[in-house]
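As a warm-up, study this chain.
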Amino acid sequence: MIKKLFTLISFLWACQAAYAQNPQAFWLQFKKLYNADQYTTMYDLLAPSFKAQMSLKEHTAFFKNNIKQGAGKMNSAVLLQYGDEGNTFLLSFEKMQLEVLLVLDQKDKVLGWMWQPYKAIKTPTISIRYDNPLKTKTDSTIDQEARRYIAQYPKARLSFAIVSPAKTDYYYYAADELPDAQSVYELGSITKTYIGWLVARAVTEGKLDLATDIRQYLKGPYKNLERNGRPILIKHLLNHSSGLPRLPEDYMSFIKDNYNPYESYSNEDLLKSLQKSKLSAAPGTQSVYSNYGYGILGYLLEQVYQQPLEQLLNHKLQSVLQLDSITFKPTPPLIQGYDEGMEPVPAWTFKAMAGAGALKTTLKATAAFLQQQINEQDKAIKLSHTVIDPHIQPLIAYAWQVAPFKKQADTLIWHNGMTGGFSSFYGFFTQQKTGLVILSNVAQPTDAYANEILKSLQEQ
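Now compare it with the structure written out below.
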């Protein structure tokens, strides 16, 4: 009976991306109401748009006659995985465990959720190669999480780094050939933190002002790039509050290769798309994750510095931070990437949207950039950790997400990324001054695994 209802409920999933202010607080409230059979009050946890799709009668029947009868009372909720479209939780009940993909709006009301039986990852039966001294608790946690990931995605070649102000430890895992310090990965949306740093650099150099209307750098009036008298400012692109969609509305018409979706989209196409874009909200009022916005930021930086974005980024990394060069091009030694079905896929190439996710580099280079974040010796790096608008959730700095972590009085500054064949995570604690990098050549998130490693770092 429950399985049948899982299929039924799935069509109610809201595809609209939204960020929860406090998902753990939501589950505590949900648990209290659910266990007390207060289904009418539970119904008020739904957003109006969700209520329009599911009546109180349907809502009550689902939880009373199916979840409660099949699973019993709820015990706990644990975060399994972060995602741009929602967060996945493991809910433990008296009789079984359920997995829930949850999307909350800015008022912590449910925009959509998808319930399904939890399928635990099986212990690997394949032989796994590794480079890990296995001396500390964190070493052991990395070993555990790497094996869990490879058990599910056997072609994964994983690279980890634990970063502190003066030291970096590297770890490598694979069922076949181990990656190494020269192995290049696609970083996906982690690219945005590099773009955020470039914007901060431009601010400290007096070349950009966050309060500038972006139309100052565009030829033409672009009257559509404002709403309720509020124009899009540079800062609105940084914290995803511009009102622009995730991707240009006409973007699909430019795709010539589904396996390489950004290669055909040029600066000329970007400017044409901008002329037709409609803002979903007044800029600076709500956050909706936008690759489009960071594609525009990359274009604006090129106009400000009169240099191609890749050349500009390399110049600043080398001259300011004394870091190794990076690339936007899929050239060797880029390792093979795989989709979720373990099928090989080509690397992504970018033109106009490079600022959203074009970066390709090694674990060593990524860890070195993260170490610079921890040390905060460069004034632009320090500036880039400043939250753009504390009234907009989630808290976002210059691309970085900023959030309290667990029970410790610490703040995690982090980002993740994914392409057609790669996924990545990196973040650091501002007080403890330790950080984590995970790079994978499989297009499946590493966030849940990162969460366990971060917890072990705090407990050391």
